Amino acid sequence: xxxxxxxxxxxxxxxxRNRLLAGLLVGCAITMFAVPGGAAxxxxxxxxxxxxxxxxxTGATGDVFSMHYNPGSLCDLLEPEAGLYYGRLxxxxxDGGDTSRSFFGWATPSSWGTVGLSYGGYxxxxxxxxxxxxxxxxxxxxxxxxWGAVANYLRKSAxxxxxxxxxxxxxxxxxxLGSGAPEDLSATAWDxxxxxxxxxxxxxxxGVTVAHLFEPDLGFYGNDPVYRIWKVGGGYGTRxxxxxxxxxxxxxxxxxxxxxxxxxxxxxxxxxLRVGGGxxxxxxxxxxxxxxxxxxxxxxxxxxxxxxDTAKDxxxxxxxxxALGLGGPE
Length: 330
Description:
Layout lengths: L6 H4 L5 H17 L15 H5 L28 E8 L10 E12 L2 E12 L3 E14 L3 E15 L7 E2 L6 E3 L6 E15 L5 E8 L17 E10 L2 E12 L2 E13 L3 E10 L4 E11 L2 E10 L9 E9 L5
Antiparallel strand pairs: 1-2, 1-16, 2-3, 3-4, 4-5, 5-8, 6-7, 8-9, 9-10, 10-11, 11-12, 12-13, 13-14, 14-15, 15-16
């Protein structure tokens, strides 16, 4: 989270530097929006900080990327913040697959709570895409509890003409549409994510979230639900950094899938180092790492993820993300 000044004076005292940085951030976002939209809305790290910690963000301090993880931690924002990232997924595959993820979000605190807007996308070339447009709200309750909710508009689309009149599932590779199918296919739905954090001391945090509460159906012809995901996580701060641990559970086709994610984050005034990993059902296994740098109200993060369960010959996934505080002092 970027902390600079108080939000009551931020709009009156916004510096020229922050205006220029904001323009750069929006310009990058416009470029990133050219990337097609997310695969089967599968859980995937959003933002380089989260990638470096294998997504163990349910009990972490919040920033604008909390729109994707735990909306309750949006309450940590003390000033308006914008964030974006772009990630090329599993680079170096022999088949030359071109997959990517992107995110752009904005959130601001106010006297009646914190509100946010975001766009997230995943794409496989010009063949398949998934997009999420979200509106979030968070508010503290008493002194130690923060809660939040996010409403999501989901859209999935496929262009069979780009793949010779056929379309295969981007995760399994199994063909799901044959020759003669309509060239342009799409499905849309609304969904809700909920989250909360308990912060009893400066050192401890405990969080809980449920994503895809309604399990919306986004099938082109048959059923293709986005399965509900439960997460419980915590964070403990020490002089050596913050240790994060999270458990997740998803019931996919009546088959439970449990995973354990964790990481350690060491931050200083200007730099951050992170390392993490995860294990779980269906052979889920990965290691992660990353770093970050801060210059005034601008934070730049890099994350790297190497899956150990599939695609043994790939060079992993890289993400770079930016977060900009828009209310810093002169």
